[in-house]
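Example 558.
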Amino acid sequence: MTKHEFKAESKRLLDMMIHSIYSQKEIFLRELISNSSDAIDKIYYKALTDDSLQFDKENYYIKVTVNKDTRTLTISDTGIGMTEEELENNLGIIAKSGSLAFKTENEAKDGHDIIGQFGVGFYSSFMVADVVTVITKPFGSDVAFKWESEGADGYTIETTEKEAIGTEITLKIKENTEEENYDEYLDDYQLQSIIKKYSDFIRYPIKMDVTESRPKEGSEGEFEQIQEEKVINRMVPIWRKNKSELTDQDYEQFYQEKRYGFDQPLKHLHISVDGAIRYNAILFIPERTPFDYYTKEYEKGLELYSNGVLIMNKCGDLLPDYYGFVKGLVDSEDLSLNISREILQHDRQLKLIAKNIKNKITSQLKTMLENEREKYEQFYEAFGKQLKYGVYSDFGANKDDLQDLLLFYSSKEQKLVTLDEYVSRMPEDQKYIYYASGESYDRIAKMPQTELVQDKGYEILYFIDEIDEFAIKMLMNYKEKEFKSVASGDLGIEDENNKEAEETTAEHKELFEHMKQVLSGKVKDVKVSTRLKTHPVCLSAQGDVTIEMEKILKAMPD
Ligand code: ADP
Ligand code: MG
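Predicted structure in complex with magnesium ion:
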């Protein structure tokens, strides 16, 4: 029996890959630039151990050049280059990654900034190009090589001339078709925006010759076209900078640049975690509720970067729904990516990061509540409802995180108070946390049901959001004090008049029976109550569901 090896049909494989791995053609530029960045990283690592090599940051860069006449786009770098063998292995074999090998070999030297790993990114250039030409001169060699391919039919390699060490990749951009506009990959402006979108934080400068029209000197109203070499990328991401180097304005400007909202951020969090999980994040709590926040269109999520390269625009898994208003981004070097460089759906690392982020937001909000009450109330005005939904959802699983962040209007203080504030000033004989539901604070204040509780000098929380009572039902109690609606049948208040009331009810049994008959189907019982002081009559609830809740439940679609 002989064992045969599978041979990949590279022509078909290439086709398949080009058309199925990547959902957007523009990412070819991200892939080529990432490769260039890796190549510069490699020469940098080499310089760490090779005394003959100086790594002078100024001399290392990536350049993107366009030639509309020849329809070519060139990405060149001053990186480590490729030997003939490397050209064959790394560009000639699909799914072979020289960068992965480099990382594995250099593990001890901390090569985790290197981006490449799958050995397919390079081929994405065939999504937009008919011919790809690679001219490269490897470090330590006098000869340069030219690799050329039209994609499916294989490639050629020959020696050639190149002065400096590094690689130059030229794409012959495809002609436009009816479905696809390829011209945009020859357009300065488009290219700049693609670079900014995906590669803004590549650590080496990405240069381009950009034509700009400027007012002509010494003449009025006249403009001249000036071509200038510009660095397109920001390089050092703000989240990798030290907090102490950054001002509030820096964060605000970033918020605006990223178009996280039209408002100002109310608070920012700059997180750098370096332990079992490693990530950097910048998060913002907006000042105002986004206009579409309570609609289906609103999509929660944070931007997700892997090593400074954008992977996902809105990663919803990073935020629980109740913190869905948080904006910002996360950058981690530990994510497991799939072959098209998307995050794996059930990445363990991502889950850990999400949990960590959730805790950071919770403690940030607690700090704000403690130290900047006014600001917190502004926040609560915008997003408090979301926190209450958070308490209610998932069967109360998040209540420990959220209960101390809740605010309710207090009859006593005439302002918003926390549950802790309420409980800490409860008189000793008070057993429950009392609340009253209604349409507005004014209306609740006039409710007859509140009279006895008020009279006892107990504080009442006013619930005017529909969600309030549902959330509180999910909490059940706070610091071992149960919640009780002022409209519930038994208020749990010791009252010497209680007995008298029972006697009166018994005495006038017939009268009450008659009232019950008249109101039959509308009320369950009619009796004398001690809770009223100035009002003659009121409604109260019997079970757990109060009248307000019943109204809401009735209004819900079945
Ligand atoms: P990956 O980057 O995931 O390894 P690619 O298909 O993007 O896969 O690239 C394959 C390999 O080709 C890289 O690992 C690297 O060894 C080599 N390579 C690609 N571009 C360059 C470049 N500009 N300079 C040096 N080597 C490169
Ligand atoms: Mg790559």
